[in-house]
Specification:
With 458 residues, the chain is α/β, with parallel strands linked by helices. The chain folds into 2 domains: 30-103, Alpha-Beta Plaits, CATH 3.30.70; 123-442, Aminopeptidase, CATH 3.40.630. It is 39% helix and 15% strand. The strands form 2 sheets. Strands 5-6-8-7-9-12-10-11 form an 8-stranded mixed β-sheet, with helices on both faces. It has a 4-stranded antiparallel β-sheet with strand order 2-3-1-4, with no helix packed on it. Strand 10, helix 10 (340-358) and strand 11 form a beta-alpha-beta unit. The radius of gyration is 23 Å and the shape is globular. The termini are far apart. The relative contact order is 0.12. The structure holds zinc ion. Zinc ion binds at residues 178, 181, 316. Its cofactor is Zn(2+). One of its GO terms (cellular component) is extracellular space.
Length: 458
């Protein structure tokens, strides 16, 4: 190859790189709000969702639920005409999504030397912050890497262990499995900071009596991609299933990713997941196909042998809900999770305390009851396979006004109320006796107490 040819090859490959790395603009994209008021309207919306042509912000499509759909400027006329023809009101609630993205990226002009949750950190900044946390608390905090993402980024977090006792109570916190849900890592880093620095006796009790394993960004490739390329990215960045999405009028890049929260090996692909790579809820070609989901599951399996693992919390947005496992059950079948009643009570009491802080209301229930049935999620796997007793998925602020684009000024209020909720949940769990006996034993004890009560009553 002569110099001229080499230059040409270089120029072409550079052009390709630039094309691939192009930042996706949401200029003039609108978000519409639709509230289906009959089963027929729900079905129409589900069909529209299945067409994969528009971007459903909320996966929620249920009777009287608040459905937010983002629409490309080129498709807005067609979209509006269609909903007029089926006589379902579709109201524009966001005029220009890119505007709102730009606002969310704002950082205060003067910033304190320590991060104060007044803006959203990038992945590299979160890693640097974690390094600092470990350096500042060497006796208590240890850096942990549980695996490597598809693109080779570490899945990093901290282990917080104040007492170094044998057979401790253990809890794990998962953040950022869905890339665009930025409030999740912003909440999880805040929890780490509270556990390490708070002087509040309740927070200290929760931090010091439990060994915590906390991971702010379990989907690092996706999170980095929301900063560099596409703010609305949800999945990981696997190209294994790459295919054309032209038939849906979507960019092929949409197929470069698996929804990690549908990839876990518990009832995988049975409901509420897609086998189409162009879908936001694509579950992968096989359960646990992704290194990120395997890393989480392997780590849970490892630490549950190091003591008595009681807690697993996963943080998402948005909707203001606490989801109780299992996500595929509703009505009387919720009791497939043997301690559903306890989990429900713990969450309800926690959300009462949460509401007392800023008046924010959270709903509590299984996903199938208050959202939609789902399978293959991390928290259902933790409950159903790892058999951890107290397990939740939190859908943080808000209920759709800003959705994933929650303004930085709302990070702190969100975090304050979540801390209040968690503290109460820990208290109630402790009072219910979860620190002394295992889940299996609890069921036996409840049964014996029940039999005894019957005997006394007779
Ligand atoms: Zn999510």
């Amino acid at each position: 190859m002569n110099f001229k040819e080499m230059f040409l090859v270089l120029a072409i490959s550079l052009a390709i790189t630039v094309t691939n790395a192009e930042y996706v603009s949401y200029d003039q994209y609108k978000v519409y709000k639709i509230v289906p008021s009959s089963d027929a309207e729900v079905q129409i919306l589900l069909d529209v969702q299945k067409s994969n042509q528009y971007y459903f912000w909320s996966d929620v499509v249920a009777l009287n639920s608040d459905v937010r759909i983002m629409v490309d400027p080129a498709k807005q006329v067609e979209f509006e005409k269609y909903f007029e023809s089926v006589k379902i009101p579709a109201r524009v609630v966001i005029q220009d999504v890119q505007n709102m993205i730009n606002e969310q990226l704002q950082r205060p002009a003067t910033r304190s030397s320590k991060y104060a949750w007044d803006y959203y950190l990038s992945l590299d900044e979160i890693f640097a912050w974690l390094d600092q946390v470990v350096a500042d608390h060497p006796d208590v905090a240890t850096a942990v890497t549980i695996g490597t993402s598809v693109e080779g980024r570490p899945i990093r977090g901290v282990k917080i262990d104040f007492k170094k006792q044998a057979n401790p109570i253990i809890g794990m916190i998962e953040g950022g499995i869905h890339a665009r849900e930025w409030i999740s890592p912003a909440t999880v880093t805040y929890i780490i900071n509270e556990f390490l620095t708070s002087s509040d006796p309740d927070v200290k009790l929760m931090a010091e009596n439990i060994v915590w394993h906390i991971f702010p960004v379990t989907n690092p490739d996706g999170y980095a991609y929301t900063f560099s390329d596409n703010r609305m990215w949800r999945k990981n960045r696997s190209t294994y299933n790459h295919t054309s999405c032209a038939m849906y009028g979507l960019s092929d890049d949409i197929s470069n990713g698996i929804d990690l929260n549908r990839n876990f090996g518990f009832l995988w692909m049975s409901i509420g997941a897609s086998d189409i790579p162009c879908a936001e809820t694509f579950a992968g070609h096989v359960e646990f196909s992704e290194p990120e989901s395997r890393a989480i599951a392997n780590y849970v399996t490892t630490i549950k042998n190091e003591g008595h693992m009681v807690y697993y919390f996963a943080f998402h947005s948005y909707s203001q809900m606490v989801l109780v496992p299992y996500s595929h059950v509703a009505g009387s079948t919720v009791l497939e999770a043997p301690n559903y009643g306890d989990m429900f009570e713990v969450a309800i009491r926690g959300m009462d305390k949460l509401k007392a802080v800023h008046g924010t209301e959270y709903e509590v229930g299984t996903s199938a009851e208050i959202l939609y049935p789902v399978s293959g999620s991390s928290f259902d796997w933790v409950k159903g396979v790892a058999e951890i007793p107290i397990v939740y998925l939190f859908e943080l602020r808000d209920v759709g006004e800003f959705g994933f684009l929650l303004p930085p000024a709302r990070i702190i209020p969100n975090n304050e109320e979540i801390m209040a909720g968690l503290i109460e949940m820990e208290k109630v769990t402790r009072r219910l006796g979860y620190y002394h006996i295992s889940d299996g034993e609890r069921v036996v004890v409840s049964f014996v107490l029940f039999a005894l009560a019957l005997f006394v009553a007779m």
